[in-house]
């Protein structure tokens, strides 16, 4: 999505950042956006309370950087209902950021705020891609090889089988275009690997995925999210969100336990010091901030949803990933892939 300036020439790709979202507000979000400008040459529009944003820009000595500020007088709270945010917060930083994408003044928007409100606002303001019934949140998780995309990670708690097929197509394109995987392996999350395992949703989705053009490897179990057996894991938003939250908690617990054991006595502390380079490499491999946040696939634009507690590094990398998404022409490729699946289904239906 290229923007044009007054003389018709393409203008730099911009990312709209909801500066007021998240647990830490503009202090962390603005610093992350500034870091993206400095390290990646990004062009950012910071959306929110102008005075609060300006204070952070001055604190960071970033007045001369490629930053714009778009004032928004309201903030969507983390506990607010999506419907309330839509009806009553028409000048919220989240909605204004989405409107910048709708108006082609930005290529993507980023928010660490209310996920449900972000999804609702994106669908209402920006709209969905042709062929997409429901957008999905795609969590990019580390595995023993590279990454696994888990979707849906919380947007659709009660989807139909055809929605899971759409999720799979979108995940396939994202894995190919952004993660660089030639033929991503797609698995359907179930309670066993054998065909026929699972509930009615997974059984019906299994048949649709098997008949698709995707590199479908069949049913997979929860352990396959991390062992590298597949690249895209498809499930409903209820199951996906539970799996994601368990994973986050487990990672935190393991980190705390390892640190506790390494600091237990003098011998352990010496060993920890010697092994520090290996521990640092391990930390980077499992660090969710490397990917910034979860892409919201299926909207007619680009959006990254960040964790509410996202640190500076996560916001910085979310800006980077959003730019990669927009520059890769991802949405055009998703539309083409969905159209191909519909055409394929029609041809096969005609043979029957």
- Major beta sheet, specifics? 7 strands, mixed
Structural class assignment: alpha/beta
How much of the sequence lies in strands comes to 15-25%
Proportion in helices? 40-55%
TL;DR of this structure?
47% of the residues lie in helices and 16% in strands.
Detailed description of the structure:
By secondary structure, the protein is α/β, with parallel strands linked by helices. Helix content is 47%, strand content 16%. The chain contains twelve helices and 14 strands. The strands form three sheets. Strands 5-4-3-6-14-13-7 form a seven-stranded mixed beta sheet, with helices on both faces. Helix 4 (93-102) packs parallel to helix 5 (115-126) and helix 6 (161-177) crosses helix 12. The protein is globular and about 60 Å long. The model is unreliable at 1-11 (pLDDT under 50).
Observed structural traits:
about 350 residues, alpha/beta, seven-stranded mixed β-sheet, five-stranded mixed β-sheet, 12 helices, globular, disordered N terminus
SSE topology sketch:
Blueprint: E1 3-4, E2 10-11, E3 14-18, H1 26-40, E4 43-48, H2 50-59, E5 67-71, H3 82-88, H4 93-102, E6 108-111, H5 115-126, E7 136-137, E8 139-142, E9 147-151, H6 161-177, E10 185-189, H7 200-210, E11 215-220, E12 232-234, H8 237-262, H9 266-274, H10 276-286, E13 294-297, E14 303-305, H11 312-327, H12 330-351
Helix pairs in contact: 1-2, 1-11, 3-5, 4-5, 6-7, 6-12
């Amino acid at each position: 999505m290229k923007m044009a300036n007054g003389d018709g020439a393409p203008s730099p790709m911009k990312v709209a950042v909801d500066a007021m979202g998240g647990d830490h507000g503009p202090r962390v979000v603005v610093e992350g956006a500034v870091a993206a400008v400095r390290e990646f040459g990004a062009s950012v529009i910071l959306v929110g309370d102008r005075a609060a944003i300006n204070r952070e820009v001055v604190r960071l000595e970033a007045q001369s950087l490629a930053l714009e500020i778009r004032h928004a007088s309201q903030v969507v709270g983390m506990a607010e209902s999506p419907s309330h945010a839509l009806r009553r917060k028409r000048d919220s930083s989240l909605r204004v950021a989405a409107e910048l994408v709708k108006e082609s003044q930005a290529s993507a928007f980023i928010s660490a705020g209310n996920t449900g409100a972000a999804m609702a606002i994106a669908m209402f303001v920006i709209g969905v891609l042709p062929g997409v019934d429901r957008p999905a949140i795609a969590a990019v998780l580390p595995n023993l090889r590279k990454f696994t995309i888990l979707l849906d990670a919380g947007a659709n708690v009660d989807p139909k089988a055809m929605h899971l097929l759409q999720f799979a197509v979108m995940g396939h394109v994202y894995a190919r275009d952004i993660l660089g995987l030639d033929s991503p392996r797609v698995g359907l999350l179930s309670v066993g690997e054998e065909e026929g395992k699972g509930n009615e949703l997974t059984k019906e989705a299994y048949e649709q995925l098997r008949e698709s053009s995707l590199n479908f490897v069949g049913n997979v179990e929860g352990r396959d999210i991390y062992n590298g057996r597949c690249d895209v894991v498809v499930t409903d938003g209820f199951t996906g969100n539970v799996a994601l939250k368990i994973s986050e908690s487990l990672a935190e617990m393991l980190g705390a336990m390892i640190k506790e054991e390494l600091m237990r006595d003098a011998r352990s502390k010496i060993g920890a010091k010697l092994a520090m380079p290996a521990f640092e490499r391990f930390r980077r491999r499992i660090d969710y901030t490397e990917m910034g946040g979860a892409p919201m696939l299926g909207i007619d634009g680009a959006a990254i949803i960040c964790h509410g507690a996202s640190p500076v590094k996560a916001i910085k990398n979310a800006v980077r990933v959003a730019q990669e998404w927009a520059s890769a022409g991802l949405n055009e490729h998703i539309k083409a892939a969905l159209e191909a699946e519909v055409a394929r289904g029609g041809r096969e239906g005609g043979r029957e």
